[in-house]
Write a structure and sequence with these properties.
This protein is an all-alpha fold. Helix content is about 75%, strand content about 0%.
Length: about 400
């Protein structure tokens, strides 16, 4: 999320327009798309401990390279390394959760993982803006790389792949399936894609993340500074409310689904309905909403987006339980493809509606340009609401065996 704070600095440092900035930032999610299959295989075979440590080291190297980049191509390479390292984190963490928690606790744990990620998003808004003002964006990225390296070492030292590695009894039910071979993994991918119950879940994740990240991770601060006249720090603090909403909602959504309702589709429908409604308020009016309402709207946008954490529980409950890592990797593929495409497309729409204004070498976009980009986000957000209605209700249990009794 850090590029949202330094978007103007990056455009100025490398003399690039919005579309090029969108491409630079979008290389991150493209890494998730490319790594979707290897991620599932690595999580199942190498084990989460090694995967998380290796990913952290790669992210650290990329962040330091990005901060030191003298030219655009080097910055691109740094961002590529950050994306490659980050692409393994969620799947490895959820694979770890499948060993250390019971199946009916999975959505709660997935939501908690997203909530912990929201802490990073909070640090990447207001606090990062203060750091950038103090030491500049380059040293800020170098510092982020140093902290990430320490966390990678901690992962390798403290994480254990399963309870038995600490002399504890196994938590998951049933016998442990052997790690799948690459051939078995390749065979599992078409089965997941051919499962009609997979597609609404896959598309729900793609449309919700795809519309959320361009605002929260790229254009939110430029929008607030250029349309509302806020300083970078003030705009980052307002945008931080989005992360606060996500922080609260992600684990709450899992708890409501797992413990209170015992259902998946109703909380998904409620979350996506609220999400699309907030986007309509941001994108559709001819005049921007009053500044006093922007913070609450950002909070609600983040709160509604937390419900998307349920897709990781849903995708594993409609597919073969022998291929948990592969199913979770498949879920990541359309999520980050949508994420990447939307960052680029919103940048294209901003450039298409640019009137030629420049401040300190950075493009300044009018309200009409942001409305065009955000209207696309609203349309994609509404599609997530439709996909939520089409999602199979699993009642928090795996239903794959019911559909494949002879498998």
């Amino acid at each position: 999320m850090a590029p949202v704070v330094v978007a103007g600095d990056l455009m100025q440092a490398f003399a690039i327009p919005a579309a090029a900035l969108g491409t630079l930032i979008a290389v991150y999610p493209y890494c998730f798309v490319v790594m979707a299959l290897p991620n599932g295989t690595m999580a199942d075979t190498l084990g989460p401990r090694r995967v998380l440590a290796l990913g952290g080291v790669t992210m650290a190297a990329g962040s330091i390279l990005f901060g030191a980049a003298p030219v655009f191509s080097v910055a691109f390479a740094g961002r590529l390394l950050v994306g490659l390292g980050a692409s393994v984190m969620l799947i490895a963490s959820l694979r770890l959760a499948s060993e250390w928690f019971r199946p009916h606790e999975f959505a709660t744990v997935a939501g908690s993982s997203q909530s912990i990620g929201a802490v990073g998003a909070i640090v990447g808004t207001g606090p990062l803006a203060l750091l950038v003002e103090a030491i500049g964006w380059r040293w800020s990225y170098v510092g982020i790389g140093g902290v990430t390296l320490l966390l990678a070492v901690a992962c390798f030292v403290f994480i254990r792949d399963k309870p038995e590695d600490m002399g504890l009894p196994r938590i998951a039910d049933g016998p442990r399936a052997p790690a799948p071979s690459l051939r078995e993994t390749l065979m599992a991918m078409p089965a997941i894609a051919a499962n009609p119950r997979s597609w609404p879940i896959l598309l729900l994740g793609a449309t919700m993340y795809g519309s959320f990240v361009p605002f929260f991770g790229l254009w939110g601060v430029p929008y607030l500074t250029q349309v509302y006249g806020l300083s970078r720090v003030a705009a980052s603090n307002v945008l931080m409310m989005t992360a606060v909403g996500l922080l609260i909602s992600a684990p709450l959504s899992g708890w409501v689904s797992d413990r209170w309702m015992g259902l998946r589709r109703p909380p998904l429908v409620a979350a996506t309905a609220l999400y699309a409604a907030i986007w309509a308020l941001i994108a559709l009016p001819a005049t921007p909403v009053a500044l006093r309402w922007v913070g609450p709207l950002c909070f609600l946008l983040g709160f509604a987006s937390g419900g998307v954490s349920l897709v990781f529980a849903c995708i594993r409950e409609v597919n073969d339980p022998r291929h948990v890592g592969v199913a979770l990797g498949c879920q990541n593929l359309p999520v980050f493809l949508g994420f990447a495409l939307m960052q680029w497309l919103t940048g294209v729409l901003l450039d298409a509606n640019w009137t030629g204004a420049l401040v300190a070498g950075s493009r300044v976009y009018p309200l009409a340009a942001y409305r065009a980009a955000f209207t696309l986000c609203f349309a994609v957000a509404f599609a997530s609401f439709v996909m939520a209605w089409l999602t199979t209700e699993t009642r928090c249990r795996n239903v794959w065996a019911q559909a494949h009794p002879h498998a």
